[in-house]
Amino acid sequence: MSYSETHKEVKYLSQTSKIINQAKKEGRKALLEPEAKTICMDYGICVTKFKVAVNEKEAVHCAEEIGYPVVLKIVSPDIIHKSDVGGVMVNLNKPAEVTDAYKKIMENVKKYNAKAKIVGVLVQEMARQSTEVIVGAVKDPQFGQTVMFGLGGIFVEILKDINFKIAPFTRDDARDMITGLKSYPLLKGYRNTPPADIDALIGILFATSRLIMDHPEIKELDLNPVMVYRKGAKTVDARIILE
Ligand code: ADP
Ligand code: MG
C-alpha cells in the first residue's frame, strides 16, 4: 500500500471513530443524519451533498451553495423518524421556499415534542427520483453482524423480498445478494425503468460489511432509501444506532 493510501485509511477511520466516540460521550444511541452520512462518506458510500443550518438565513445560504432544488430535514437527537413528525420538506426551489420550509419544520417539530432538542436543519441536495433500494445492517443474536438488501417500498414491506448475508463478505457475495432477489429483474431494467448500476450497489454492500466489522458498536444501520441510477447510486437517508 502506498503512503497516500495508508494515510487516507487512517484519516477515514479516525473520522468515524470520532463521531461514534462523541455520541457515546453524550449518551446518544442514535447518530444524527449528518453524522451517519459522514461515516458513509468515510467508507466511500455516496450520499446527497449536505450542510447543517441553524437559522433560516443560513439555510438559504446552504441551499445556494448546494444548488436548487434542495430538501430540508430536522436534525434532532430526539427525532428518529423525521417525516413522521413533518420534519422533511422536499423539492424546494427558491429562497422563499427554503425559509417557509424551515419555519414549517420547526413548527411541526415543536407541536410533536416541545422539549425536543434541536441541533438545526439539514439542507441537502434533492436526489433525482429513481429505483429505490434499502441497505440495512443488524446484529443477529446467533450469527452476529448481518447485512440486508432489498428494493424499496412494497418489495421489502409487503413481499418481504430481502436477502441477508453475514458479514464480513466478499464482493461476489454482495453480487449474489442482489442477483438472488425475486425483484432482481427490475434492477436489470424493465419497460421504462432503466438498468441499475449493479456495481455501485455491490460497492455499497461491501462497504457496509467493512463498516460494521470495523465498528462492532454499531447495532443497526439503515440506508433507506438509496437511489440507484444507470450510473452510480446515492444514499438519501442514513440512520445508525449504537449499542
Ligand atoms: P425519515 O426516514 O426519517 O422519515 P427520510 O430522510 O428518509 O426521512 O425522508 C423521507 C422521504 O423523503 C424519503 O424516503 C425520500 O422519499 C424523500 N427524500 C428525503 N431526502 C431526499 C433527498 N435528498 N432527495 C430526494 N428525496 C428525498
Ligand atoms: Mg428514511
Describe the overall structure.
Helix content is 40%, strand content 26%. It has helices at residues 3-25, 33-42, 56-66, 95-112, 154-157, 171-179, 184-188, 198-214; strands at 50-53, 70-75, 88-92, 120-125, 131-140, 144-151, 162-166, 218-228, 233-235, 238-242. The chain starts with a helix and ends with a strand.
Instruction: List bound small molecules.
Output: adenosine-5'-diphosphate, magnesium ion
Number of helices: 8
Average pLDDT, to the nearest integer? 94
Q: Which word captures the global form?
A: globular
Roughly how many Å is the radius of gyration? 18 Å
SS elements, strand count: 10
Q: Proportion of β residues?
A: 25-35%
Structural class: alpha+beta
- N to C succession of SSEs: HHEHEEHEEEHEHHHEEE
Helix-residue proportion: 25-40%
Main sheet characteristics: 6 strands, antiparallel
The stretches of 5 or more residues where confidence is low (pLDDT under 50) are: 1-7
How many angstroms separate the termini? 33 Å
Concise summary:
The protein has helices at 3-25, 33-42, 56-66, 95-112, 154-157, 171-179, 184-188, 198-214; strands at 50-53, 70-75, 88-92, 120-125, 131-140, 144-151, 162-166, 218-228, 233-235, 238-242.
